Automatic annotation (TrEMBL):
Keywords: Kinase, Transferase
UniProt GO molecular function: kinase activity
Domain of life of the native organism: Bacteria
InterPro entries (UniProt xref): Cytidylate_Kinase-2, P-loop_NTPase
Record-given protein name: Adenylate kinase
Transmembrane spans: none
Keyword flag DNA repair: no
Organism: Vibrio hangzhouensis
Length: 177
């Protein structure tokens, strides 16, 4: 495992897992949201986003955290491993709600030098709510990753499906032993 993409629905725990995995392997942790979001919640254009992504993925070792389905042709071109964090719907929704609540209270900047913080209003009362996004994409993400695992186009990829936090920890703990 040298080039790893960790995927999963928003709130699934992919960022937590990605950081844990990157730390264990001593690889750079690359967060797609940090590449995409500009200050004041401005989105990068696809041209900007794709160029940044291609530049970051030029290195030999990395753990890439994120979905962004439109980037699959770029990120999966040379990836050797995709780790799918596929926790239950109830677990994923609980984690998304808990994270949104905590972030709206702490006002922690999400990505360096963006000033982007989550607010209660944006998280719970907006059409752009990450919780609403989790509700809308959970099922379609599961279908997409199940299909990708059996797609001959991706036979060069080792797919690993992790279905619980306990299994995630065991997977990381087992590395390097």
């Amino acid at each position: 495992m040298k080039k790893i993409n960790v995927v999963g629905t928003s709130g699934s725990g992919k960022s937590t897992f990605s950081r844990m995995l990157a730390d264990k392997l001593n690889y750079p942790h690359l967060e797609m949201d940090a590449m995409f979001w500009k200050p004041n919640w401005q989105e990068s254009t696809d041209q900007e986003f794709f160029a940044t992504l291609e530049s970051k993925l030029a290195d030999e070792l990395w753990v890439l955290d994120g979905n962004y389905n439109r980037t699959v042709p770029i990120k999966w071109q040379h990836v050797d491993t995709v780790v799918w964090i596929d926790y239950s719907f109830s677990r994923t929704l609980y984690q998304a709600v808990k994270r949104a609540f905590l972030r709206s209270i702490t006002k922690q900047e999400l990505w360096p030098q963006t000033g982007n913080v989550e607010s209660f209003r944006k998280s719970f009362l907006s059409k752009d709510s990450v919780i609403l996004w989790t509700l809308k994409t959970y099922k379609s993400n599961r279908v997409r990753y199940q299909q990708a695992m059996s797609n001959p186009e991706y036979r060069h990829i080792n797919f690993i499906r992790i279905t619980s936090p306990k299994k995630a920890k065991a997977f990381v703990d087992k590395l390097g032993t």
